[in-house]
Amino acid sequence: MSSLAPVKDTPSKTQRLQQIADVIRPYSQSPFVTSNFSIVSSSNSQTEHVIYFAITRWPMWTVAGIFLASSIVPPNPLRPPLMYRLGFGAIFSGAGYVISTGDVYNGTGIATAWSLTYLFLNLRKSLKPPLSGLSLALSGAALASSTLYGAEYFLLQEKDS
């Protein structure tokens, strides 16, 4: 007789879209937001402004694109190895795909874990002189990704349960 821990319910895609609508409400007078956009009311806090980007695939695919595009730059001792750049780019693409399928909880977990792994492996080397612009850009992209998706994974989803 094994006891299984209860699985945390993740919010539905409709609930997350309603939260996005709450974030967009202050900007609804903008010409970029159509007038037939339905807005559902709920609590409005400062952390809700992060939700729009944290549950979409585009920031993750942007980070993946940066990593994959950096593979055209020739190897150099100051830069991360080519296999790191290709491997992390592929993993970040996969995390974006998971988010795009609607599994935000697992997608943000993958993005956070692998972004922190990249930082663990490369941050110290990228900050040592002589500095490499590519190495700093990749570390900055991984730091931004871990911050954005980590906030969604660890902080914002706690409020949904």
From TrEMBL:
<keyword id="KW-0812">Transmembrane</keyword>
<feature type="transmembrane region" description="Helical">
    <location>
        <begin position="105"/>
        <end position="121"/>
    </location>
</feature>
<feature type="transmembrane region" description="Helical">
    <location>
        <begin position="133"/>
        <end position="156"/>
    </location>
</feature>
<feature type="transmembrane region" description="Helical">
    <location>
        <begin position="50"/>
        <end position="70"/>
    </location>
</feature>
<dbReference type="Pfam" id="PF10315">
    <property type="entry name" value="Aim19"/>
</dbReference>
<feature type="transmembrane region" description="Helical">
    <location>
        <begin position="82"/>
        <end position="99"/>
    </location>
</feature>
<dbReference type="InterPro" id="IPR019419">
    <property type="entry name" value="AIM19"/>
</dbReference>
<protein>
    <submittedName>
        <fullName>Uncharacterized protein</fullName>
    </submittedName>
</protein>
<keyword id="KW-1133">Transmembrane helix</keyword>
<keyword id="KW-0472">Membrane</keyword>
